[in-house]
Write a structure and sequence with these properties.
The chain is of the alpha/beta class and 297 residues long. It is built from nine helices and 13 strands. A hairpin with a 2-residue loop joins β4 and β5. α1 packs across α2, α1 packs across α3 and α2 packs across α3. The termini are far apart.
Amino acid sequence: MKLTRNQFDVLVASEGAGCALSQRELAAEVGKSVGTVNKVIAELSEYALMKDGLITGKGIYTLEPYRVKRAVFIAAGFGSRMVPITLNTPKPLVRVGGVRIIDTLLDAVVAAGIEEIIIVRGYLGEQFDQLLSKYPTIKFLNNPMYNEANNISSALVAKDYMQNAYVFEADLVLSNKKLVQKYQYCSNYLGVPVDKTNDWCFIMKNGYISEFIQGGYDCYHMFGISFWTEEDGKRLAKDIERACDLPGGMERYWDQVALDYFIKEYKIEVRECSFDDLVEIDSFSELKEIDPTYRCG
Protein backbone atom coordinates (compact mmCIF):
# COMPACT_ATOMS: atom_id res chain seq x y z
CA MET A 1 0.00 0.00 0.00
CA LYS A 2 1.31 3.43 -0.97
CA LEU A 3 0.81 5.84 1.90
CA THR A 4 0.03 9.51 1.52
CA ARG A 5 2.41 11.88 3.27
CA ASN A 6 -0.12 12.57 6.02
CA GLN A 7 -0.79 8.86 6.55
CA PHE A 8 2.94 8.21 6.71
CA ASP A 9 3.56 11.00 9.23
CA VAL A 10 0.77 9.83 11.56
CA LEU A 11 1.83 6.17 11.38
CA VAL A 12 5.47 7.03 12.09
CA ALA A 13 4.47 9.22 15.04
CA SER A 14 2.30 6.43 16.41
CA GLU A 15 5.03 3.81 15.96
CA GLY A 16 7.61 6.02 17.66
CA ALA A 17 5.38 6.87 20.63
CA GLY A 18 5.01 3.29 21.80
CA CYS A 19 1.67 4.16 23.39
CA ALA A 20 -1.68 5.59 22.37
CA LEU A 21 -1.60 9.32 21.68
CA SER A 22 -4.58 11.61 21.62
CA GLN A 23 -5.48 13.31 18.36
CA ARG A 24 -4.21 16.56 19.80
CA GLU A 25 -0.90 14.97 20.76
CA LEU A 26 -0.53 13.40 17.32
CA ALA A 27 -1.36 16.74 15.67
CA ALA A 28 1.39 18.45 17.69
CA GLU A 29 3.86 15.67 16.86
CA VAL A 30 3.31 15.80 13.08
CA GLY A 31 2.64 19.54 12.78
CA LYS A 32 -0.86 19.14 11.33
CA SER A 33 -4.26 20.40 12.41
CA VAL A 34 -6.41 18.25 14.69
CA GLY A 35 -9.00 18.06 11.93
CA THR A 36 -6.44 16.70 9.44
CA VAL A 37 -5.16 14.16 11.93
CA ASN A 38 -8.69 13.07 12.80
CA LYS A 39 -9.38 12.41 9.11
CA VAL A 40 -6.11 10.51 8.64
CA ILE A 41 -6.73 8.34 11.71
CA ALA A 42 -10.13 7.42 10.29
CA GLU A 43 -8.48 6.42 6.99
CA LEU A 44 -5.81 4.35 8.72
CA SER A 45 -8.38 2.69 10.96
CA GLU A 46 -10.45 1.75 7.91
CA TYR A 47 -7.38 0.02 6.45
CA ALA A 48 -6.68 -1.65 9.83
CA LEU A 49 -3.34 0.19 10.11
CA MET A 50 -4.39 1.79 13.41
CA LYS A 51 -6.76 0.75 16.17
CA ASP A 52 -7.71 2.59 19.34
CA GLY A 53 -4.99 5.17 18.74
CA LEU A 54 -2.23 2.58 18.28
CA ILE A 55 -0.42 1.38 15.19
CA THR A 56 -1.26 -2.25 14.34
CA GLY A 57 0.99 -5.04 13.12
CA LYS A 58 -0.36 -4.38 9.65
CA GLY A 59 0.55 -0.72 10.07
CA ILE A 60 4.15 -1.60 10.97
CA TYR A 61 4.29 -3.95 7.97
CA THR A 62 3.00 -1.15 5.72
CA LEU A 63 5.79 1.14 6.95
CA GLU A 64 8.50 -1.40 6.11
CA PRO A 65 9.15 -0.15 2.52
CA TYR A 66 9.92 3.27 4.04
CA ARG A 67 12.37 1.91 6.58
CA VAL A 68 15.97 3.10 6.29
CA LYS A 69 18.10 0.05 5.54
CA ARG A 70 21.63 1.41 5.86
CA ALA A 71 23.87 4.40 6.50
CA VAL A 72 26.79 5.31 4.22
CA PHE A 73 29.56 7.59 5.47
CA ILE A 74 31.84 9.55 3.13
CA ALA A 75 35.03 9.69 5.22
CA ALA A 76 38.02 9.31 2.90
CA GLY A 77 39.35 12.87 2.59
CA PHE A 78 42.41 14.52 4.10
CA GLY A 79 40.73 17.53 5.70
CA SER A 80 43.37 20.05 4.65
CA ARG A 81 41.65 23.01 6.31
CA MET A 82 41.88 21.24 9.67
CA VAL A 83 45.71 21.07 9.62
CA PRO A 84 47.60 20.55 11.92
CA ILE A 85 45.15 18.29 13.76
CA THR A 86 44.54 16.15 10.66
CA LEU A 87 48.22 15.51 10.01
CA ASN A 88 47.95 12.46 12.24
CA THR A 89 44.19 11.94 12.55
CA PRO A 90 41.45 11.69 9.89
CA LYS A 91 38.98 14.54 10.36
CA PRO A 92 35.98 12.31 11.29
CA LEU A 93 38.04 10.85 14.16
CA VAL A 94 38.99 14.23 15.61
CA ARG A 95 37.47 14.67 19.06
CA VAL A 96 35.19 17.59 19.89
CA GLY A 97 34.36 17.87 23.55
CA GLY A 98 36.01 14.48 24.03
CA VAL A 99 33.81 12.75 21.44
CA ARG A 100 34.92 11.72 17.96
CA ILE A 101 33.07 13.74 15.31
CA ILE A 102 31.80 10.64 13.53
CA ASP A 103 30.48 9.16 16.80
CA THR A 104 27.86 11.90 17.00
CA LEU A 105 26.45 10.56 13.73
CA LEU A 106 27.00 6.88 14.40
CA ASP A 107 25.25 7.10 17.77
CA ALA A 108 22.19 8.58 16.06
CA VAL A 109 22.24 5.84 13.41
CA VAL A 110 22.39 3.12 16.04
CA ALA A 111 19.62 4.79 18.07
CA ALA A 112 17.40 4.72 14.97
CA GLY A 113 17.88 0.98 14.68
CA ILE A 114 19.89 1.11 11.46
CA GLU A 115 22.23 -1.87 11.62
CA GLU A 116 24.02 -1.77 8.27
CA ILE A 117 26.77 0.86 8.42
CA ILE A 118 29.16 1.51 5.53
CA ILE A 119 32.20 3.78 5.92
CA VAL A 120 34.23 4.78 2.87
CA ARG A 121 37.74 5.48 4.11
CA GLY A 122 40.99 6.59 2.51
CA TYR A 123 43.40 8.92 4.30
CA LEU A 124 44.93 7.08 7.30
CA GLY A 125 42.21 4.53 6.72
CA GLU A 126 43.52 1.98 9.22
CA GLN A 127 42.73 4.38 12.06
CA PHE A 128 39.01 3.84 11.47
CA ASP A 129 39.44 0.28 12.80
CA GLN A 130 39.20 1.77 16.29
CA LEU A 131 35.47 2.27 15.69
CA LEU A 132 34.81 -1.47 15.57
CA SER A 133 35.02 -1.91 19.33
CA LYS A 134 31.99 0.36 19.75
CA TYR A 135 30.25 -0.26 16.42
CA PRO A 136 31.04 -3.87 15.44
CA THR A 137 28.64 -3.96 12.45
CA ILE A 138 30.63 -1.40 10.44
CA LYS A 139 31.73 -2.47 6.96
CA PHE A 140 34.65 -0.53 5.50
CA LEU A 141 35.10 0.30 1.83
CA ASN A 142 38.49 1.60 0.76
CA ASN A 143 38.81 4.49 -1.67
CA PRO A 144 42.23 4.31 -3.35
CA MET A 145 41.51 7.52 -5.27
CA TYR A 146 40.90 9.78 -2.27
CA ASN A 147 44.08 11.79 -2.87
CA GLU A 148 43.56 12.15 -6.63
CA ALA A 149 39.87 13.01 -6.90
CA ASN A 150 37.07 14.80 -5.06
CA ASN A 151 34.56 12.98 -2.87
CA ILE A 152 32.66 11.75 -5.92
CA SER A 153 35.30 9.01 -5.94
CA SER A 154 33.98 7.82 -2.56
CA ALA A 155 30.44 7.81 -3.92
CA LEU A 156 31.69 5.71 -6.82
CA VAL A 157 33.08 3.15 -4.37
CA ALA A 158 29.79 3.07 -2.41
CA LYS A 159 27.36 3.44 -5.33
CA ASP A 160 25.71 0.04 -4.82
CA TYR A 161 24.81 0.80 -1.18
CA MET A 162 22.69 3.92 -1.61
CA GLN A 163 19.24 2.32 -1.82
CA ASN A 164 17.00 3.08 1.19
CA ALA A 165 20.06 4.74 2.67
CA TYR A 166 21.28 7.81 4.47
CA VAL A 167 24.47 9.26 3.08
CA PHE A 168 26.51 11.27 5.59
CA GLU A 169 29.43 13.61 5.25
CA ALA A 170 31.41 12.18 8.15
CA ASP A 171 32.72 15.53 9.44
CA LEU A 172 29.45 16.87 10.86
CA VAL A 173 28.95 17.24 14.60
CA LEU A 174 25.34 16.25 15.26
CA SER A 175 23.56 17.55 18.35
CA ASN A 176 19.99 16.54 17.50
CA LYS A 177 19.91 12.76 17.09
CA LYS A 178 16.22 12.89 16.12
CA LEU A 179 17.26 14.11 12.68
CA VAL A 180 18.28 10.53 11.94
CA GLN A 181 14.94 8.74 11.76
CA LYS A 182 13.90 5.14 11.35
CA TYR A 183 11.62 5.87 8.39
CA GLN A 184 11.81 8.28 5.45
CA TYR A 185 9.11 9.07 2.92
CA CYS A 186 11.16 10.39 0.00
CA SER A 187 14.66 11.38 -1.08
CA ASN A 188 15.81 14.51 0.75
CA TYR A 189 18.64 16.64 2.09
CA LEU A 190 18.89 18.47 5.37
CA GLY A 191 18.77 22.24 5.02
CA VAL A 192 18.34 25.38 7.13
CA PRO A 193 16.11 28.14 5.72
CA VAL A 194 18.12 31.37 5.43
CA ASP A 195 17.68 34.80 3.89
CA LYS A 196 21.23 34.77 2.57
CA THR A 197 24.28 32.50 2.59
CA ASN A 198 27.70 32.33 0.98
CA ASP A 199 27.82 28.58 1.43
CA TRP A 200 26.36 25.77 -0.66
CA CYS A 201 22.60 26.03 -0.73
CA PHE A 202 19.38 24.81 -2.31
CA ILE A 203 16.91 26.82 -4.32
CA MET A 204 13.43 25.32 -4.24
CA LYS A 205 10.66 25.17 -6.85
CA ASN A 206 7.31 23.47 -6.39
CA GLY A 207 8.55 21.77 -3.23
CA TYR A 208 11.69 20.24 -4.75
CA ILE A 209 15.33 21.27 -5.08
CA SER A 210 15.71 23.03 -8.43
CA GLU A 211 19.22 24.49 -8.04
CA PHE A 212 22.34 23.64 -6.07
CA ILE A 213 24.60 26.67 -5.91
CA GLN A 214 27.26 28.32 -3.78
CA GLY A 215 25.75 31.47 -2.31
CA GLY A 216 22.14 32.52 -2.61
CA TYR A 217 19.13 34.37 -1.22
CA ASP A 218 15.87 32.98 0.21
CA CYS A 219 17.27 29.49 0.10
CA TYR A 220 18.30 26.56 2.27
CA HIS A 221 21.79 26.30 3.69
CA MET A 222 22.93 22.79 2.83
CA PHE A 223 24.09 20.15 5.27
CA GLY A 224 25.59 16.95 3.93
CA ILE A 225 23.06 14.46 5.25
CA SER A 226 20.75 12.99 2.63
CA PHE A 227 18.38 10.07 2.22
CA TRP A 228 17.76 8.11 -0.97
CA THR A 229 14.80 5.86 -1.68
CA GLU A 230 15.27 2.45 -3.26
CA GLU A 231 14.32 3.80 -6.69
CA ASP A 232 16.55 6.87 -6.48
CA GLY A 233 19.39 4.82 -5.01
CA LYS A 234 19.34 2.49 -8.01
CA ARG A 235 19.33 5.51 -10.33
CA LEU A 236 22.22 7.07 -8.39
CA ALA A 237 24.40 4.01 -8.90
CA LYS A 238 24.20 4.50 -12.67
CA ASP A 239 24.37 8.28 -12.59
CA ILE A 240 27.47 8.36 -10.39
CA GLU A 241 29.29 6.33 -13.01
CA ARG A 242 27.95 8.59 -15.77
CA ALA A 243 29.10 11.71 -13.92
CA CYS A 244 32.58 10.31 -13.29
CA ASP A 245 32.98 9.65 -17.00
CA LEU A 246 32.19 13.28 -17.91
CA PRO A 247 35.07 15.73 -18.48
CA GLY A 248 36.23 16.88 -15.05
CA GLY A 249 33.76 14.55 -13.41
CA MET A 250 36.21 13.17 -10.85
CA GLU A 251 36.92 16.71 -9.64
CA ARG A 252 33.31 17.29 -8.54
CA TYR A 253 31.42 16.86 -5.29
CA TRP A 254 29.31 13.74 -5.23
CA ASP A 255 26.18 15.78 -4.40
CA GLN A 256 26.37 17.35 -7.86
CA VAL A 257 25.36 14.05 -9.46
CA ALA A 258 21.68 14.32 -8.49
CA LEU A 259 21.60 18.05 -7.71
CA ASP A 260 23.35 19.34 -10.83
CA TYR A 261 24.31 16.90 -13.59
CA PHE A 262 21.06 14.91 -13.63
CA ILE A 263 18.75 17.06 -11.50
CA LYS A 264 15.80 16.71 -13.90
CA GLU A 265 15.70 12.98 -13.16
CA TYR A 266 15.15 13.43 -9.41
CA LYS A 267 12.56 14.98 -7.09
CA ILE A 268 14.47 15.79 -3.93
CA GLU A 269 12.90 17.54 -0.97
CA VAL A 270 14.51 19.45 1.90
CA ARG A 271 14.06 18.38 5.50
CA GLU A 272 14.28 21.52 7.56
CA CYS A 273 16.65 21.70 10.51
CA SER A 274 18.39 24.48 12.41
CA PHE A 275 21.97 25.54 13.06
CA ASP A 276 21.47 24.32 16.63
CA ASP A 277 21.00 20.75 15.37
CA LEU A 278 24.42 20.22 13.82
CA VAL A 279 27.57 22.01 12.78
CA GLU A 280 30.23 21.50 10.16
CA ILE A 281 33.69 22.39 11.41
CA ASP A 282 35.47 23.74 8.34
CA SER A 283 38.81 24.78 9.78
CA PHE A 284 41.17 24.37 12.72
CA SER A 285 40.34 27.89 13.88
CA GLU A 286 36.64 26.95 14.04
CA LEU A 287 37.56 23.82 15.97
CA LYS A 288 39.41 25.94 18.54
CA GLU A 289 36.37 28.19 18.92
CA ILE A 290 34.11 25.22 19.60
CA ASP A 291 36.54 23.23 21.75
CA PRO A 292 38.94 25.40 23.80
CA THR A 293 41.18 22.41 24.61
CA TYR A 294 42.77 22.93 21.17
CA ARG A 295 43.81 26.49 22.01
CA CYS A 296 47.38 27.13 23.00
CA GLY A 297 49.63 30.06 23.78
